[in-house]
Recover the amino acids of this structure.
């Protein structure tokens, strides 16, 4: 049986960034709900390094005028439909129905990291 391999901290970092752009209230609630996983319980107290990097991601996106201009619409919209005979359900980060587009924020550890792909017997990005 297939089992997904994921890093729970990486998912939290992504959700941290997403929650910021959803709304201040959602972001504060997210931080409160996950504070034991995000903040150091020992000196020096404060955000753990991964979440400090998430803060840098947020600050960088806020500085991008194009991003701020296009990230307008309904946040975290659930959509359903059928594709190729299969029912699907998804969540769109920002859906702008009036202008007919959506935006999906992606966070990544390293855009340039290359990993070995067993299926193809080669390194890939």
């Amino acid at each position: 049986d297939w089992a997904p391999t994921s890093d729970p901290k990486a998912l939290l970092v992504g959700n941290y960034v997403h929650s910021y752009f959803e709304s201040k209230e959602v972001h504060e609630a997210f931080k409160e709900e996950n504070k034991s996983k995000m903040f150091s319980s020992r000196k020096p107290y404060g955000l753990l390094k991964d979440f400090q990097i998430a803060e840098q991601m947020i600050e960088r996106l806020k500085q991008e005028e194009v991003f701020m201009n296009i990230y307008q619409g309904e946040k975290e919209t659930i959509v359903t439909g059928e594709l190729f005979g299969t029912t699907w359900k998804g969540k769109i980060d920002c859906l702008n129905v009036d202008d007919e587009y959506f935006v999906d924020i992606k966070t990544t550890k390293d855009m340039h990291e290359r990993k070995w792909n067993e299926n193809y017997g080669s390194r890939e990005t």
